[in-house]
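ok new one. same drill as before - structure tokens go in, u give me an amino acid for every spot. 276 of them this time. try not to just spam alanines like last time pls lmao
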């Protein structure tokens, strides 16, 4: 049997880039996983597992209790491959899936694994670029996110945060080549912001700093995705990096009845992003 005790904390929740919503009182219920869903019931609860396999799986991966999108509690849809949980309306889905469900983050990771070394931002190349991105994310004032939070600093931290993350851990995994693609790195970096909102509140100074770190991360991953060669060259100390040739598909562009060659950065359906 598995037991999850009741928790109590006032939370100010906000979704990145959206309006903040104040939550005066958190639910006085215990979140529990049942058939792939996290439900809230009053008081302590006992889960009876159908077989030993499901019990061992839940021990290894403890699901979060707060929606990955809106950071609120409630009835949750659990990902089968990571600790993230979602409200059905936040995914969004119209109804509960009948089969095992994986979240958008894990679905995107599967696509990255299929591409493998075919991608310009494959794991091998990404390991060379991420240290530069992490340096830019580690600006002055972000010291609180550089090392894991300990119980000496916050005694009740792990009562609310089930998947801790910090810049030091992210950097170590980057050196080990864990991150499969830019989106994989971005999704895991977002744990810092998510946990900060849950524990400190959406309006705290630390959460504002965490949101800034995440915004920088988004910018860096976009730059890497558009042109990995340009990103690496820009990180070099040489002043003439902008004049160095890079491997890029050349296309003909038209502007004001004039036609000229241009380097293709990204193709999206019938639209393209060009460099110059």
């Amino acid at each position: 049997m598995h037991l999850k005790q009741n928790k109590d904390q006032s939370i100010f929740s906000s979704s990145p880039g959206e309006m903040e919503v104040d939550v005066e009182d958190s639910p006085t219920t215990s979140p529990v996983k049942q058939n792939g869903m996290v439900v809230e019931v009053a008081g302590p609860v006992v889960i009876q597992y159908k077989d030993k396999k499901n019990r061992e799986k839940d021990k290894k991966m403890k699901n979060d209790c707060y929606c990955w999108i809106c950071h609120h509690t409630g009835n949750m849809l659990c990902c089968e491959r990571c600790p993230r949980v979602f409200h059905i309306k936040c995914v969004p889905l119209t109804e509960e899936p009948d089969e095992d469900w994986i979240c958008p983050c894990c679905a995107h990771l599967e696509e990255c694994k299929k591409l493998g070394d075919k991608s310009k931002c494959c794991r091998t190349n990404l390991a060379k670029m991420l240290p530069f991105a992490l340096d830019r994310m580690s600006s002055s004032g972000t010291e609180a996110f550089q090392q894991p939070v300990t119980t000496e600093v916050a005694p009740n931290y792990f009562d609310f945060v089930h998947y801790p993350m910090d810049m030091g851990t992210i950097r170590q995994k980057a050196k080990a080549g864990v991150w499969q693609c830019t989106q994989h790195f971005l999704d895991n970096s977002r744990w810092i912001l998510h946990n900060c909102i849950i524990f400190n509140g959406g309006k705290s100074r630390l959460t504002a700093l965490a949101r800034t770190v995440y915004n920088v991360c988004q910018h860096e991953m976009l730059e890497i995705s558009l042109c990995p060669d340009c990103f690496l060259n820009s990180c070099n100390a040489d002043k003439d990096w902008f004049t160095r040739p890079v491997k890029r598909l050349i296309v003909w562009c038209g502007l004001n009845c004039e036609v000229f060659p241009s380097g293709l950065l990204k193709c999206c359906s019938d639209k393209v992003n060009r460099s110059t």
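Helices lie at 52-60, 104-115, 123-137, 167-175, 182-200, 205-226, 228-235. and btw The two ends are 63 Å apart (CA to CA).
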